[in-house]
């Protein structure tokens, strides 16, 4: 129903939204997952990681309710090769800064995340999509 609504709406098509069906991996949070955890989740088929939604879905399904989840992804783990703990320690012992990737277009934190401007630019997209979906229910 979600993709049909999106594809059949000229209004939504003009907004150039990007919709994907994803596997949502739940972790208790707030937490910053390690690179190894991200790799493991990716190997298991995960696309998105978060610390909400799943407990609520479990309760709803336990009550035999149908569920549709929409997530606005605003933070993504970079695929950049960050130095290992060994390389970072070696650089520190040798008196040089560890080499970290730098992207001019993105704000990067020391944990290797990039933050998107999606919350401010996509609020209208989500509102319009929800309005159309509710109208079809």
From TrEMBL:
Gene3D superfamilies: Nucleoside phosphorylase domain (3.40.50.1580). GO terms for molecular function: purine-nucleoside phosphorylase activity. One of its GO terms (cellular component) is cytoplasm. It comes from the Eukaryota. Coiled coil: none annotated. Pathway: Purine metabolism; purine nucleoside salvage. The keyword Signal does not apply. Pfam families: PNP_UDP_1 (PF01048). Its EC number is 2.4.2.1. One of its GO terms (biological process) is nucleoside metabolic process. Keywords: Glycosyltransferase, Transferase. It is an enzyme of class 2 (transferase). Belongs to the PNP/MTAP phosphorylase family. This is purine-nucleoside phosphorylase. It comes from Zancudomyces culisetae (Gut fungus).
